[in-house]
Amino acid sequence: MIIDASLFTKPVSQQERVAFKQRFYPKHTPFGLNYVSWFLFLGVALLLILWGISTYNYDQSQTQHRAGAVLIFFGCVPLVALLFTVLTFRKKINRSVKIYRFSVANGLTYDFKVNNPIRNGLIFSNPGTKQSFIYDSISREGERPFEIGNYYFQTRSSYRQPSKSHLYGFMRIKLDKFLPHMVLDATDDDVKIGGLRLSRLGAAFAKDQVLTLEGDFNDHFTLYAPKEYETDALYVFTPDLMAYFIDNANTFNAEIIDNNLYIYSLRPFFLDKPETFERLFAILDTVGLKALKQTGNYRDSRSDVSGAVATGGRRLKRGISATVIITIILVIVINILEHFEAIQQLFR
């Protein structure tokens, strides 16, 4: 793999920006917005500003002056939004062009944006997802296939609550065999509240699926495997593979599901930086290769179908997350406090 720093440090030319935009953006979308959006923003801005000026100059009353000033202010808001769009669009295009350069130099496939992607990984399976896409991703098929990109999605628990945005960096490595579902949860990115540790993976698994590892591995990761698949998990996550994870990917979470190994980052990957690819390909060449070798001869003895995993091992059983428990406790405490006087009256 060629990780040439000049692919990222060389300034992006106007010709590159124009060529990239023509290839990956729809027609008639200056600065990433279609003409309808431009006319809408400018029309609303012009209407409010003209209305504000006419109101301001209608007479000399202080009330009219204030109303006119307010209208002019809100008329300037769309103009500021358009200016921000123009300024950030150039930066966004420059970042994407550098990633595209790298993919072309290495014969990789580049995808500017994949809407509503179908992946079987944990972060792609949130039931509350309303909008999702992978952007600036690179991939390779054939020998040692992989995919690297950033995944954005929005969730909303109810129509009364605003949507919440999520952004992960991920790497997907295709394995030669189907394996039981296993999750390696890094402890470094957990949220610690007193003696309670909250995982930030976005899902909780039943605690009776936690495996105790040898050495100090438990200080770095929590390993989940389906019940009765403990031996299979230890066959895959051997001490030397765990050592690779600790040395090269101790800030990342990992998941093996079906025939894919996912590496998750709770922060997006800065894929326009050569050092990002140096680290990711180091993980691919160490953790990825070791996982491929370790799982190449795996077979689930519980399955009657060759190459398949029995039903009990295909997916981990979900549990109640600590976040949900804390939320329930807080709701109960708030309700008690709100009705504290009424409760006191009952015991008098």
**How many domains, in number, for the residues?**
3
Query: Helix content range of the residues, please?
Result: 40-55%
Strand-residue proportion: 15-25%
The SS-based structural class is alpha+beta
* Regions with little confidence, pLDDT below 50 for 5+ residues: none
Radius of gyration: 26 Å
Spell the H/E element sequence. HHHHEEEEEEEEHHEHHHH
End-to-end gap: 77 Å
Q: Per the principal axes of the C-alpha atoms, what is the gross shape? A: globular
Q: Give the tally of β-strands.
A: 9
Quaternary status of these chains? single chain
Please state the average pLDDT score: 84
Largest sheet: number of strands, sense, barrel closure:
7 strands, antiparallel
Give me the number of helical elements.
10
Structure, described:
It is a single chain. The protein has 348 residues and is an alpha+beta fold. It has 3 domains: 6-105; 109-317, no CATH class; 321-348. Helix content is 43%, strand content 22%. It contains 10 helices and 9 strands. The strands form 2 sheets. Strands 1, 2, 3, 4, 7, 8 and 9 form a 7-stranded antiparallel sheet that branches. Helix 3 packs antiparallel against helix 4. 24% of the residues are buried.
